[in-house]
Every structure is written in structure tokens, then in C-alpha cells.
Amino acid sequence: MKRLVILGGGESGVGTAILGKKKGYDVFVSDFGKIKENYKEVLTINKIAWEEEQHTEKLILNADLVMKSPGIPDKASIVKKLLEKKIPVISEIEFAASWTDATLIGITGSNGKTTTTMLTYHLLKSGGLNVGLGGNIGKSFAWQVAEDKFEAYVLELSSFQLDGNYTFNPHIAVITNISPDHLDRYEYKYENYINSKFRITMNQTKEDFLIYDDDDEAISGWFQNNKTKAQKIPFSISRELEKGASIKDKTMKINIKDEEFTMDTTHLALEGKHNMKNAMAAASVAQLMKIRKQTIRESLSNFQGVEHRLEKVLKIQNVQYINDSKATNVNATFFALDSMTVPTVWIVGGVDKGNDYSELMSLVREKVKAIVCLGVDNKKIIDAFGNVVDVMVEVSNMSDAVRTSQRLAEKGDAVLLSPACASFDLFENYEDRGKQFKQAVQNL
Fold first, then answer.
1. What pLDDT sits at residue 298?
2. What task does this protein carry out (predicted)?
């Protein structure tokens, strides 16, 4: 019996444990932190051995195969020891994909991947496909492979998940865009991070498809020096493309395999240029999956959007409060500020992953009337924008941030939470940060 050791007892770890057990592995789950009670129960009911708050080497280094959660870096000492012993260390995605023959659609990118994933899932489901949703979102992919019988999966994939993939081959891959993020995990080398994203296409064949943003510098740069075997489907909002997706006179045109799809972009449910790109990517997938054109149009116009992503919370005294807590990097915040059409009080800050705020400068000058810094260390933000906006306030919790913003905002303004940073200094995660924002707004 082969031994499968799982590092990390969260959603992906427990899902992998269940699939591993079902496929006849001797399974052991080890978490250096605490495992949540509901996951412990699942493991115990399924008679899967586990430990928490430690990694017992003699129970780990005897593995035939190791699945490590995406949050654990390669430089963790237990991972180094496994690699020294030449024990394969893979991702949940790699493990689960080897046990399903469903059509796999993989979506990655620095920003927009959740919206594009949810939108693609919405299009395929509305089109009557029996489709699952997983990866970096929702229920663990491995868990679904163990228990469900989907014909296709739409998977949101982070660079960390792709790093643990070696044979994974999605039939359709999407790269929404690439901008510097998580560089602390890539030796602070942007090209390492770019290469990591392109792992999504490394095993694709000429029967497969790669959909990508043709306006993106990092993506174009990679194609100058590298090739993919997949059929390329670009999308662009800056110029017309003969093949792929583009916009002309407010009409989205997608041309794939001599099939043309058109839609009036004024009917799109999601606002902003970046969402036009997300819609083109999702619609391209839907067209490849043979969803009816009318269904694609209807689904693009009735999509509800993603929580914590430019989510309109409430209008109070004619001030619109917007929750964009999912903006954990500068590029995401760029899109948010770019889509603002009224004077904005901007709530920003958190754990900085090596941010360069200079690219926001012109937007801040044009759109932002006041900045509320919500973080333990706000020095970089104050240095960057101190001379650009008239009012700058530091706060240390969400209710103060919202109350301060209310004082600074006038009728017709907006208050935008778009932190451009990770949330771990004051919150559990970006969802917790977004929920606290919404709660504080409701308490006004």
C-alpha cells in the first residue's frame, strides 16, 4: 500500500485525504498549525490518521507521495527534507486531476481570476453542463473528484498551486493577466512568478486551448521567448483581432474556429474595462464548450458578481460604499480606482508584499479626495501619497476606518475599501476584512 502524506489540514488537504483513502492509499495528514474542528471530524469519521501543531518526521519522511497545501512555501524545512530524499511533493490539483477524466478548465492570473472563474462556471452551468467549481475557491477539487460525477470542472489556480503541478493538463487554460504579486515566494524575481503562471500551459497539446490577455506586457514578453503547443486564443480591448476576442464600437466580437459570437457590451452585468476582459475570457471558454450564443449573452447580462470584488454595499446619505477587499495587490486596486466615476475616499493598507504604489499616482490625483490608512505599518503609503491628497488619516480597526470615511465623504462621493495589500496584520483573511467592512457600513 502506497503512503500518501498530506501537509496542511485545510480544505485542500482534507479533500486530498478523502480521495487518497478512496483510491487505496495509506493516508496521513500533518498540520503545523491547528486543524479546524469540522475537518478533524471528517478525518476521524473516515478513519484517516492526523496530527496538528507539529510535523513528526518519522511519519512524514516515509511517504511515497506528498501533497502540500499551497500556503506552505518550498523553503519550509520539512519540504526541503522531502525534496532531498527525492520524495515527490505535488499539489492537490495535480493529485486530483490524475483521478478524473472530466474536461478541465484552468484559470489563473494575478487579478480577475476569481471573477473569471465564477463567470465561466455561471455560463457553463446556465448552458446545462454538469460542471464543478474548485481550485482556489469553494469546495476542494479532490473532494469533488472523490464524491461527485461532474463532466467538467472550472478551476481557479494560484501560482502556488501551479508550482506543485507536473503533469496537469487542462483542456482549456486561461491567463487573465500578470502583474507583480507574491514576489516574496519567488526570490523577488518577477520572471520566476511569470514562469509559474505559464506552468498552466506546459503540458497542453495541440488539441488544447490557451486563452490570454493580448494587451498584457508580461504575457507578450513570455511569448517572445517561449512557445505553447496549445491553440492560442487572445483577447484585447485595445485593438481588433481577427482571431480571438476584441471590442469594436461597444460590440464584443469573439471569433473562434470560424464561429463568430457578438454582444453589445452595454448589456454586460459587470462594469469596468477589466470586467470586459473577464467577460471575453469566460465567453471564449463557453464558446469552446459549445454553449448556445443566446445563453452566453443572457448569462453575461445577469451575472451577480463576486463578493468582496467591487461589491456595492449600501448607499448612505447619497454616498456609495464599495467593498473591494479582494484587491490584495496594487494591480487590483488600479482596476478599482480606474472604475470610479465620483470623488472617492479610499481605504488602503495591510501587509505590503513589496508594493510599488507609483503606478496608482495618476489615478489617485484624479479620483481620490482622502485616504484612510488601515494597517499596522502605513509608512510606505504615507510616503507615496502624503503630498498627493489633502487628507490622510491612520486608523487601526475597521469600524474607525468606516466612521472616518463617512466624516470625510460628501453627498455624491464614494467610499472604496481597496487595500492593495494582504489582510493578515488585522484580519484573518480578505473575506474577514470585507465582512467587517460591510458590517461597519451597516452599523452607520
1. 95
2. Cell wall formation. Catalyzes the addition of glutamate to the nucleotide precursor UDP-N-acetylmuramoyl-L-alanine (UMA).
Cell digits of residue 63? 511517504
109 marked among binding-site residues: yes
Q: Tell me the β-bridge partners of 323.
A: 311, 417
Is the same domain home to 172 and 239? yes
Q: Say if residue 112 carries a ligand binding annotation.
A: yes
Same domain, 98 and 86: no
DSSP summary character for residue 202: T
How much is the pLDDT for 293? 96
Cα-based torsion angle of the residue sequence 351, 356, 360, 361 in order, rounded to the nearest 10 degrees: 120
Q: Helix 217-225 vs helix 190-198: angle between axes, to the nearest 10 degrees?
A: 80
Total domains in the fold of the chain: 3
Are 344 and 319 in contact, with CB atoms under 8 Å apart? no
DSSP SS3 for 178: coil
Look up the domain containing 350 and give its range.
311-442
Give me the pLDDT at residue 185, please. Answer: 76
Q: Are residues 416 and 330 in the same domain?
A: yes
Q: Report whether 47 belongs to an annotated binding site.
A: no
Whether 113 has a binding-site annotation, put simply, is: yes
CATH code for the domain of 65: 3.40.50.720
Q: Write down the pTM of the prediction.
A: 0.82
For residue 284, the model assigns a pLDDT of: 97
Q: Which residues of the chain have pLDDT under 50?
A: none
pLDDT, residue 247, reads 94
Is the domain of 169 the same as that of 118?
yes
Is 110 annotated in some ligand binding site?
Answer: yes
Q: Is 387 annotated as a binding residue?
A: no
Contact 291, 124 (CB under 8 A): yes
Side chain identity at residue 39, one-letter code: Y
Q: Which residues contact 95 (CB under 8 A, 6 or more apart)?
A: 16, 19, 20, 65, 67, 142
Residues 28 and 144 in one domain: no
Cell numbers placing 334: 488600479
Residue 441's nearest CA partner among 389, 402, 396, 393 is 402
What residue type is 126 in one-letter code? S
Of 62, 90, 118, the residue at which a domain comes to its end is: 90
Same domain, 49 and 100: no
Residues 129, 260, single domain; the answer is yes
